[in-house]
Amino acid sequence: MTIRAVVWDVDDTLFDYTSADREGMRAYLAAEELLAGWESAEAALVRWREITDQQWARFSAGEVSFEGQRRDRVRVFLGVTLSDAEADDWFRRYRAHYEDAWALFPDVLPALDALAASHRHAVLSNSSLHVQDHKLRTLGVHDRFEAILCAAELGVSKPAAGAFLAACEALELAPHEVAYVGDHPEIDGRGAADAGLLSVWIDRRGPSTGADAPVGPHRITSLAELPAILRADTRFGAPSTFR
């Protein structure tokens, strides 16, 4: 079966979100002299990531708005009561440091270049269009994608099949003609496979981490491996490249 398009996740797939978030928050806490209440900068960064994951899960489950999860991340992290305006201002100041650390992974542009002539490209993210449109423009790859879809506007989040099918509909392709590439084994990997897409899980930590392998996705550790998978779709009987 021919794969005609690739739909991409953004954060920690194309864009090194984890590094940018850590370095941005480290710089912000130092600039605002907010480290005094923590055992170490590392402890503060770990707690920020825990809270981010918790609040993001609430947003993905439809329990809170995109803006609400941001505000609650700040309130929980600081342990204080803040108005929406105060929380928004705190997050805005953090975001300036965060954006200073933005970068694509080194394998992204070579992969996009290698697939430019052979496949169409789109984005599906569990974020908002405002955020990801700005991010892709800043990183210089916005024009690589003919469609950018985000959960905040779609009203449905990965791993729900409806999110992946919306991307296929935007491309006017059937799910079996579309590959999805993302970094999360369940939200991206299993979700895309269950929706009928060719699912590719980019596991940048490598197999040695012992991460559980969901049934369905191909597992790669570099986007350099992607073109070979797209040329040899093995979902219908041939040996899988999943490791």
Polypeptide structure, described:
The chain folds into two domains: 5-16 and 104-231, Rossmann fold, CATH 3.40.50.1000; 17-100, DNA polymerase, domain 1 (Orthogonal Bundle), CATH 1.10.150. 47% of the residues lie in helices and 11% in strands. The protein has ten helices and six strands, in the order βαααααβαβααβαββα. It has helices spanning 17-31, 41-60, 66-78, 84-100, 108-115, 129-138, 151-154, 161-171, 185-194, 226-231; strands spanning 5-8, 120-125, 147-150, 178-182, 198-202, 218-220. It has a six-stranded parallel beta sheet, with helices on both faces. α9 (185-194) links the parallel β4 (178-182) and β5. The protein starts with a strand and ends in a 12-residue tail after the last helix.
Head-to-tail CA distance between termini: 22 Å
Task: Return the structural class.
Answer: alpha/beta
For CATH, the homologous superfamily of the largest domain is named as: HAD superfamily/HAD-like
Major β-sheet strand ordering: 3-2-1-4-5-6
Uncertain parts: 234-243
Q: Average the pLDDT over all residues and give the rounded result.
A: 91
- Strand segment tally: 6
Give a quick account of the main beta sheet: strands, pairing sense, barrel closure.
6 strands, parallel
The percent range for strand residues is 5-15%
* Rg over C-alpha atoms, rounded to the nearest angstrom: 19 Å
Helix and strand element order: EHHHHHEHEHHEHEEH
Q: In the residues, how many domains can be counted? A: 2
Instruction: Please give the share of residues in helix.
Output: 40-55%
